[in-house]
Amino acid sequence: MEGLSAEESWAVLQHAEMPLRVEIFGFFEDEKQVEIVESVPAEQIVPLIAEMPPDDRVDLLAEVELEVVEHLMPLLPTDERRDILRLSAYPEGTAGAEMTTEFAGISEGLSAQQAIDEVRRRAEELETIYYLYVVDEENHLRGLISFRQLLTARPDAKVDELMERDIVTVNAADDREEVADKVERYDLLAIPVVDDEYHLVGIITHDDVIDVVREEAVEDAHRIAGVEPLDTGYLETGLLELCWKRGVWLTILFFLATLTCFTLWHYEAEIAAATWLVYFIPLLMATGGNSGNQSAALVITALTSGNVTVVDWWRVARRELGLGLLLGLFLGLLGFLSALGVMFVSDKQHADTTAPAEVTSQYDTTQLDEPTEQSEGESAKIVNSAVVVGLTLVLLIPCGTLFGSLLPLLFRRLGLDPALMSNPLVAGMIDVVGIVIYVRVAIWILL
Amino acid sequence: MEGLSAEESWAVLQHAEMPLRVEIFGFFEDEKQVEIVESVPAEQIVPLIAEMPPDDRVDLLAEVELEVVEHLMPLLPTDERRDILRLSAYPEGTAGAEMTTEFAGISEGLSAQQAIDEVRRRAEELETIYYLYVVDEENHLRGLISFRQLLTARPDAKVDELMERDIVTVNAADDREEVADKVERYDLLAIPVVDDEYHLVGIITHDDVIDVVREEAVEDAHRIAGVEPLDTGYLETGLLELCWKRGVWLTILFFLATLTCFTLWHYEAEIAAATWLVYFIPLLMATGGNSGNQSAALVITALTSGNVTVVDWWRVARRELGLGLLLGLFLGLLGFLSALGVMFVSDKQHADTTAPAEVTSQYDTTQLDEPTEQSEGESAKIVNSAVVVGLTLVLLIPCGTLFGSLLPLLFRRLGLDPALMSNPLVAGMIDVVGIVIYVRVAIWILL
């Protein structure tokens, strides 16, 4: 039905029985679902909404226009209406907002066979029947039994004796990333959600967890690049919204980057004394920034997967310092040789092409106050200059790796998202630090 | 047991019955599992390996030293040995390598009750009992029935009539990302894996899919930052391996960045005629690079989630061009104002502090050949210079957004990973393009 409009899809749907209709409707893209709900007459759409899985239903209604929702709500059966209000009370991004209320809860004291019969009776309406949650009269979570355990148990065995009492749960207020971590770590089909008094209020199933993992990864990728995460798909997001979500961070980073102007201006005299310095600035910035971004990406992913925590900061710092020195020494050597090559080539070109006195004089004023006649002095100067480029890399790359690795840890420590615009931020800071190191090294070696 | 060494953990494990022992062992970190297998005597570890889930077992043995594996293999029961050889024949990253062979296959012609009894008998050994796969005598996949359907069916109903015949499958040679996409799209508990003749060879369960989604996201994050994806956790990867996986791309990018040197050298005369140009180079490069990286991140995540495909390239290009112009106009205005501010401040500072004639003369040679006496001409020059900075941003940012968005699409079209070192590559190309635009605009406005 991918090519059809909302009305056409709805017309086709009318030919399906209700359970199938709900299922097909669930496969529509979010945008189409919203459009259908907003355009189809209320009395036609209400029965379908009433039959939808509670978690999907709340997500859908959250995107529909408020006016339409207010019109639909009174038409829904009381139970469903209460359910929607309860689920939508949890803030987005929490376990409560992700959970469904259609779980298989059974009371204490049943036998295995009774439990199986109970599930069989309710199988149609439940989101998953493969985990059964045992609750007491006040709905406190007491235990968990898998359908597999029931199946292999003696029919008259008591569920209370079979069930697992030590259960992995999440609180309804927990972050959904926490949910994903637990489901992933323990390979669960579903995880029970409890409130502060350990009442069972819902479950989150494996398919929702996959969506969470995927969505969180996308959000991280956006944040790392300095984009405010989008709520909808890239092609569905309005141009102005996209502009805003990118422009905010671009502007902040722009002001950070103006620091480089002031830094360069601060070293005006030194740069004027050796203008060739300028030619290597983008190369040095890029290489320093790249090494910092590598570290940031490694540490952010390690934080997300739990491989690294904030307490490991000293271990991370030592590793990155070591790595930075190794990479710095190698790229420093490479930088020295490249600078040598670049300068010899352009020096030769220069000698070949700059016969007119005017250009030569212009060039000369930009050189160090050394005798330019002697080709030997010229060569020594070129070697010295190449040493400046190489040495800057040796010092800059460890700064990049240290900064790139510690910034996400600092953000996590401060309770911020470690991925927060880390990439451009690291590169921006390295630009400033890089200029300072570069000019200082040049003064030390040349002046 | 997190604090215990491999031997200590193994000693504790001895106190658990075999099924529980296998389960606990499965929760150990990969490194500890490998250490235990390599250190414990073969006759003690073989029974545990024989009981492990086939997919985990193959993954484990792939990391154990070859010598140890060769010693263990002959001691394993024939069935398990054959199974290991079959699973390890599929290349890493394919569905075949991820799948398990312990699925619930049932033959055609059974009744619902017979099928339930069959599952009940084999429940202990199967990875999931909640989907049953119906196969013919030659093991061709014929249909699928969920345990929930069996449970709610009449006991004497035929499975052949109840089962779903139109099944979502993957080929054993398919990429594991394809597997994750399908399981995610259809909210499956497990997906059957078939060979080219549609023989059922295994299944992949939801927990393995979560791991795939997570791992692929991490790999993408590493590639985007120009790091060759790691095989193990960040802290477990050796310093030299890490150095290699980062150094390779840093070196390639370094050589790309030397293009900026040649570009700057090419415009030597123009830069010498207006040295203030230099002070804005890092700012312009950073802003252009940031806008490009935003586009790349958006398009890469949209490609991964299926929101955008290669055929959408024209739509993407138009959006990004529009966005680039909007962002470019805004940041161009900001750049104009900032440049005005920076230059007035430093000009004033200059006038205040550069009383000594020597420094002033040095400064003057770097200015345009205009009368420096008149403060009016000076102001006009500053305004013109700020126009150059602003106009460069207006032109550079659309280049960044276009380039950043189309590079991942081009990579995908060429069969490469769209995430491949996209971030530093985009920034590196923008650096070169940025310098060219900047100097051309300067020549046009000022000279």
Structural overview:
By secondary structure, the first copy, chain A, is mostly helical. Helix content of chain A is 65%, strand content 6%. Chain A is built from 20 helices and 6 strands. The first copy, chain A, has helices at residues 6-13, 18-27, 30-39, 42-51, 54-63, 66-72, 78-87, 95-98, 112-122, 147-152, 159-162, 176-185, 206-224, 239-266, 268-273, 281-304, 313-353, 357-365, 375-413, 422-446, and strands at residues 105-107, 131-135, 141-146, 170-171, 190-194, 200-205. In chain A, the strands form 2 sheets. Chain A has a 3-stranded mixed β-sheet with strand order 1-2-3. A 3-stranded mixed β-sheet of chain A has the order 4-5-6. In chain A, helix 16 runs parallel beside helix 19. The longest helix of chain A has 41 residues, at 313-353. Chain A starts with 5 loop residues before the first helix and ends with a helix. Mean pLDDT of chain A is 84; it is low at 354-372. At the A-B interface, helix 9, helix 10, helix 12, helix 13 and helix 14 of A face helix 9, helix 10, helix 12, helix 13 and helix 14 of B.
Strand order, sheet with most strands of chain A: 1-2-3
Q: What share of residues are in beta strands of chain A?
A: 5-15%
Helix amount of chain A: 55-70%
Global structural class of chain A: mainly alpha
Instruction: Please report the distance between the alpha carbons of the first and last residues of chain A.
Output: 74 Å
Number of strands of chain A: 6
Instruction: Compute the number of helices of chain A.
Output: 20
Largest sheet of chain A: 3 strands, mixed
Oligomer: homodimer
Question: What are the secondary-structure elements of chain A, in order, as H or E?
Answer: HHHHHHHHEHEEHHEHEEHHHHHHHH
Mean pLDDT of chain A, to the nearest integer, reads 84
Query: Can you tell me the overall shape of chain A?
Result: elongated
